[in-house]
Specification:
single chain; mainly beta
C-alpha cells in the first residue's frame, strides 16, 4: 500500500470490506422507474476482513497488510480498503462466485431493503 501522507494517517489495523453488485432491483413505485440506470451499482457490505499494517523498511511511504489468518485468500470480487474516513476500491480478478458479492434491492415507500441473491450463479 502506498500513501504519501502515511506517517500521519495510517492506523495499525485496517479493514477490507466486500462490495456487492446489485443483481436485481424492484421498486414499489407505480411509475416503474429504472433504479440503477443500467449502471453497475455496488454496496459496501458488513463483511470485513481485518488486517494489520506494518511499514516497509527503508520506504517510509509504503506499507504491507498482514492478516492473522494464514489461510485467508480474498475470493475474486470487489472490495474496499477502509482507512478511517476514506475507502479505496480494488478488485480481485477471477470468476465471482462468492454469494456475499451479490445483493438484490427493494425500494419501497418506507425505505430501501437489501437481501442476498437467491440463485447460486456467477455474479
Amino acid at each position: 500500500m502506498f500513501r504519501r501522507d502515511a506517517a500521519n494517517v495510517i492506523p495499525e489495523r485496517v479493514e477490507v470490506r466486500v462490495v456487492a453488485k446489485i443483481a436485481r432491483e424492484f421498486s414499489t413505485d407505480a411509475a416503474g422507474k429504472n433504479l440503477g440506470g443500467g449502471e453497475d451499482v455496488g454496496v459496501i457490505r458488513n463483511f470485513a476482513y481485518p488486517f494489520r499494517v506494518s511499514p516497509i523498511p527503508g520506504k517510509p511511504e509504503m506499507y504491507e497488510l498482514h492478516t492473522g489468518d494464514s489461510g485467508l485468500e480474498l475470493a475474486p470480487g470487489h472490495y474496499v480498503l477502509s482507512l478511517g474516513s476514506q475507502a479505496y476500491y480494488f478488485q480481485v480478478d477471477g470468476e465471482i462466485t462468492d454469494p456475499r458479492q451479490c445483493l438484490e434491492r427493494v425500494v419501497a415507500g418506507n425505505g430501501t431493503f437489501y437481501a442476498p441473491c437467491k440463485k447460486a450463479r456467477t455474479y
